[in-house]
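This is your field. Have a critical look at both lines of this record:
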Amino acid sequence: MFLPLLIAAVVGYLLGALPFGWLIARKFGINIFEHGSKNPGATNVKRVLGEKFGAKGKRAGDLAFTLDALKGAAAAGWPLWLLGAGTVVGTTASDGSEGLVYTGDQRTAAIAAITGLVFALLGHSFSCWTRFKGGKGVATTAGGLLVLLPFPTLLAVVAWATVFQVSRYVSLASIVAAFVLPAASWIFDVPTSFAILATVVCSFVILRHRANITRLLNGTENKFVKKAASGG
C-alpha cells in the first residue's frame, strides 16, 4: 500500500500547489500578494480584480475558485478511478454485522484518496511555486470533499450560500460551512475514515481563517457589498 499512498501524496501536493489565483491575477498585471488581504485565494482575487476591472475581474475570480475546486476533486478522485474503487460498496460485513465494507483495492483507493486531498490542501496553502505561501483552502477542500462526501458537502454549500447572502462575509460563510460539513458527515451514514478526514481538513480551514475571525470580532472584516445601480 505504501507506493500508492506515496504517489497520491506527491500528485496531491503538486496539484494543490498550482497557484491558479496568483497566475490569473498576473494576467491582469496584478501581484495578488500585494493587494487586498494579500491572499491568492479566489475570494481575494475576485475582490481585487473586481474592484479594478469590473465584471471581467469578477469572472476571473470565479475562474480561480473553479480551478482551485478542481484541484481538490482531481487529487481525491483519481485514486478512486484508477484503483477501481468508485464509491464505497457493501453494507454488510462478512460476519453478518451491519456497516460499510471495503475490500482490497477499495480500501487502498479510499486511503489514497484521503491522502491525495490532504496533500492537495497542504500544496494549496504552502505552494512550492510561491515560496510556500498560499490560500486558505476552502475551494480545494470543497472540490475534494464533493467527490468523497457529496451529500454533506452539498449541505455545507447551502449553509455557505445562506450565511453569505445574509451577512455578505465570505469568511464567516466559509467558517460556518467548515463546521456544518464534518457535523453532517458524522450524523449521516458515511465511512468513518471520510468523516475523520472532513473533521481534520475543515479544522485546518478554520485555523487558516484565524485572522478573519479576529477581524470579524473586531468588526473590521471586509464585506462583499452589492453596489446599487446608478440612476439614468
Summary: Residues 85-91, 228-232 have pLDDT under 50 and may be disordered. Residues 2-218 form one domain.
